[in-house]
UniProtKB/TrEMBL annotation:
It comes from the Bacteria. Residues 1-26 form the signal peptide. InterPro entries: Uncharacterised_YqxA. It comes from Neobacillus bataviensis. Keywords: Signal. Pfam families: DUF3679 (PF12438). This is Uncharacterized protein DUF3679.
């Protein structure tokens, strides 16, 4: 099962890289066909000193840090997550007591 998951993840990563490479090659082909640089045509993926650009959207480390902080705040107040944890703890405790009852 582990090997299947590893192979699946590797295949998915390979396909993602192939799609992004194909998009970049298509963009380069369009620019060559036009014969001039069009500022409206953006590259699929590009890397800069400050960050990266993915399909025209700028991505920086500051954006990632802000999103991480926001996710931490959201997960701190997740009602269903806390209820799930409590239910899991209760079921675990009940099953342990039942096993001890049966064992003795």
């Amino acid at each position: 099962m582990k090997m299947f998951m590893l192979k699946s993840l590797c295949l998915a990563a390979l396909l993602l890289i192939a799609v992004l490479t194909g998009m970049q090659l298509a963009n380069n082909g369009i620019q060559k066909m036009k014969g001039y640089e069009d500022p409206n045509l953006e590259t699929a993926v590009s890397f800069h000193e400050k960050g990266a650009s993915f399909l025209g959207n700028e991505i920086s480390s500051h954006d990632i840090a802000a999103k991480k902080k926001k996710l931490e705040e959201i997960s701190a107040f997740n009602f269903f997550s806390s209820m799930g944890r409590k239910m899991s703890d209760g079921i675990t405790g009940a099953s342990e007591k039942l096993i001890h009852l049966i064992d003795n």
